[in-house]
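Thread title: Can someone regenerate the structure for this chain?

I was given the following input by a collaborator and told the matching structure tokens would be attached. They weren't. Posting the sequence so someone can regenerate them.
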Amino acid sequence: MIGEDDRMRFLFVGDSMTIGSAGDFTWRYRMWQHLSTSFGSPFRIVGPRTELYDVRAAAPVSYDYGGPDFPAHARGHLAGWGEGWQHMAPLIGATVEEHRVDVLLVSLGLIDLGFYTDSTQTDRNVRAFIAGARAANPRVRAVLLPVIPNVRAESDAPFAAEVDRFNELLGKTVAELDRPDSPLLLAARPSTYDIHTDTYDGTHPAPSGEHKLAGAFADAMHESWGVGSSYAARR
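Best answer:
Regenerated them for you:
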């Protein structure tokens, strides 16, 4: 489905690493920059939310983006601090329908496994999310990012094992549910991602980490769908 204005519509879905906090550029900003120079066709970034999280207010009430050139019309997203697959699955259908979403770029899982659900239940929520998105747009595409390295996995062995198991399940689910008319992609975890240099607290991406996350999505779309260029080619 292409929007009525003929612009392909992208929706970012994620947790705290995607919404970002006050002062962050966010990987959404890096992806907008990449699409603006490489997509080659009209596009829109859409979503019901535009805010950043304000740690001091403990609420998503900030608009203090690190990139002053990030236009208001490109700040849309469906991301939330402390929200995961189980929170987004009930919301995605209505969001896809309202915003006429064509492509989902999804980074979820860390919050689920850390606070809410085990790997098996999280995988069920992934399936419910995909079903909800497809009910709203049977031709929707999606790129899903596995859970990336984080500080908790370095010190909590049972949690690290759940992350590994979920990532394995996610790969199998993407392969099983992939369809020619509604393709799914599993983005590669950035091979050089280092929580000591690519995050500012062991979890949330610093500027270098933002580039690597955006690059994971961009490279997946370029390699599998021929969308845009590889991320490395524009840096």
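DSSP finds eight helices and eight strands in the chain.
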